[in-house]
Structures are given as structure tokens and as C-alpha cells.
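Researcher: Here's a chain I'd like modeled. Treat it as a single chain, no partners, no ligands.
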Amino acid sequence: MAFDELLAERIRHGLARKKDIEEKKMFGGIFFMKNGNVLVGVWKRSLIAQVGDKQIDDALLGPHVSRFDITGRAIKGWVLVAPEGVEDDEKVKDWIERAVKFVGKLPGK
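Model: Modeled as a single isolated chain. C-alpha cells:
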């Protein structure tokens, strides 16, 4: 299954004013990176966000949110937001901001 192109476009729109963003296709989806670190992405129909270990418990309290696990082993600090959790652009922007807040503190790769 290909990734949701419409969700990818909504993320592009939400990242339009951010600097040093690049796109990379991997894991069967598309990911948006800042300084070599993944911010957010699209896997199938869901949004992926890197929020960090300290913020993951809070992020998991949101509706339609789970740990990002496509291999049977969750990726630490990453969440998967089901399509129902990003139905409007404000929710997409909220996840982008959460990711930017965390990833912006990471050293570049």
C-alpha cells in the first residue's frame, strides 16, 4: 500500500515556513526531516511523529495515538497517529509543532 499523498501534502503545507526541511521516502512512506533528523512522516494513511522519550507518555494520551511499530518492535520516542487523529489541518500542525519542539534540540546528522 502506498502512503497517503493528501496527508503528505497537508504536512508540506504545515512545514512551509520551516527552514532546512527535506523529504525522504523510506519504509514504504515519506518522511520530513530537519538537519537529518525525522520530524514527521506518512506511513500508509497515518501520521508519524518523533516526540522523544520524555514526551511520549503525554503524546500517547491523545485519541487515535499509538507507538510507531511496524516491525513488532516500537521505535523509541515515535508515535503513530491514525487518520482519525489528523482529520483537520490544526491537528496536523499540532503534531508538527510537537516534533519540531523535540527534534529542534537534537544535533544535526
